[in-house]
Specification:
Helix content is 41%, strand content 27%. It is an alpha+beta fold and 361 residues long. The protein has a 5-stranded antiparallel beta sheet. A 5-stranded mixed beta sheet has the order 7-9-10-12-11. A two-stranded antiparallel ribbon has the order 6-8. The longest helix has 45 residues, at 117-161. It is elongated and about 105 Å long.
């Protein structure tokens, strides 16, 4: 199929990638800009169906076939955004447009692509920033509203009981509620701040010793729940375990322990913490299990408890950022967290929260 000289000169000189195909989708030619953009020489492409060319993902095959059928019937096609794969394997985003041109008595399909990778990256970052801002806003509004409402209710009862001489025990209980709600509000603000710092990469990853941090978290738990009977047993094989993490690992352990206590209705709360080293491929990982006798988690909720609560939706676990913060911190370490039943097949007997952390040299 012969191109007119005027068009061919323009075709070669334009700085935007252009690919020409016949009406059956067979590649006729590609200009210099196309070669430079994707790294393929035109001789590697000519004669191949563009729909299954190496630079096009198979997920677009159906879309291209439908567009080609409509175009050959004379329909005007909208511009679409697709990903193309360069010869070196790198993917780029392209704003893709095609049109028909006539050459002698035949028809050529002209495909023009504009590299919009930087635009898509900026769009993605902007969307993520907006989602984060919305999440923080809704979290603060939702959880702080509950905190303030509980404080307000307690204060109203306190004012009422002050006038009654036989309400000393009730007043003491109300003061405890006020203290708990104040702590809850403070913890919420601290957790939001920590999430923000993780997302902005302000907290570096370093080598940390796990048992020291774990013991600090256990001491914190005993101080925080003086009236509860809590038995925590640590099973380990080594005297020291070093992993890639930072000071936020303390928050991971504390949140997991608090979760096991807050959702435990037994007179004696039992938590077993097991530490062991596992080999996964070429990597050595520290496996930390938090096994409790709490009321457990149904299978339908096991994945959801680590997710951030969507705006307007009640937290699955009922404690705001707790487990979503745990997952966020563990993900930043390139680790993993999951939950299983303590006893296989019966979630009501308690849970086993499993944390994998990359072992430090």
């Amino acid at each position: 199929m012969k191109l007119k000289e005027g068009y061919k000169l323009l075709f070669e000189s334009l700085p935007v990638p252009i690919l020409l195909t016949d009406k059956d989708g067979v590649i006729i030619d590609a200009n210099t800009a196309f070669e430079k953009s994707l790294g393929y020489e035109r001789k590697e492409l000519i004669g191949k169906l563009y729909e299954v060319a190496p630079f096009i993902s198979t997920k677009y095959l159906k879309i291209f076939k439908e567009r080609k059928a409509k175009q050959l019937k004379g329909a005007s096609l909208p511009i679409i955004e697709i990903q193309l794969k360069k010869k070196n394997g790198r993917k780029i985003w392209v704003s893709f447009n095609s049109s028909l041109i006539k050459s002698d008595d035949d028809v050529i399909v002209q495909n023009i692509g504009y590299d919009i990778t930087d635009y898509k990256k900026a769009e993605h970052e902007l969307t993520n920033s907006y989602d984060r801002a919305s999440f923080y806003k809704d979290l603060i509004l939702h959880d702080m509203k509950n905190v303030l409402q509980n404080i307000n209710n307690a204060l109203e009862l306190y004012s009422l009981y002050q006038k009654q001489n036989d309400k000393e025990n009730e007043i003491i209980e109300l003061i405890k509620i006020l203290e708990d709600q104040a702590k809850r509000g403070t913890l919420l603000i601290q957790n939001v701040s920590k999430l923000s710092k993780i997302e902005e990469s302000e907290i570096p990853i370093k080598k940390v010793e796990v048992l020291k941090i774990l013991n600090e978290s256990i001491d914190f738990i005993h101080r925080s729940y003086p009236t509860k009977e809590i038995k925590i047993k640590v099973t380990k094989q080594l005297k020291e375990y070093y992993v890639k993490g930072n000071e936020l690992l303390l928050d991971v352990f504390e949140n997991l322990l608090i979760n096991s206590i807050k959702h435990n209705e037994n007179p004696v709360i039992e938590i077993q913490i097991k530490l062991s080293i596992e080999q996964k491929g070429k990597k050595q990982l520290l496996k930390v299990q938090f096994i409790d006798n709490a009321k457990g988690i149904p299978d339908t909720l096991k994945e959801k408890i680590f997710q951030r609560t969507k705006p307007g939706v009640e937290s699955v676990s009922g404690k705001g950022l707790g487990l979503s913060l745990v997952k966020f911190i563990i993900d930043s370490y390139k680790g993993n967290v999951s939950v299983e039943n303590r006893i296989r097949g019966d979630f009501t007997k308690g849970s086993n929260f499993i944390v994998f952390l990359p072992k430090a040299a």
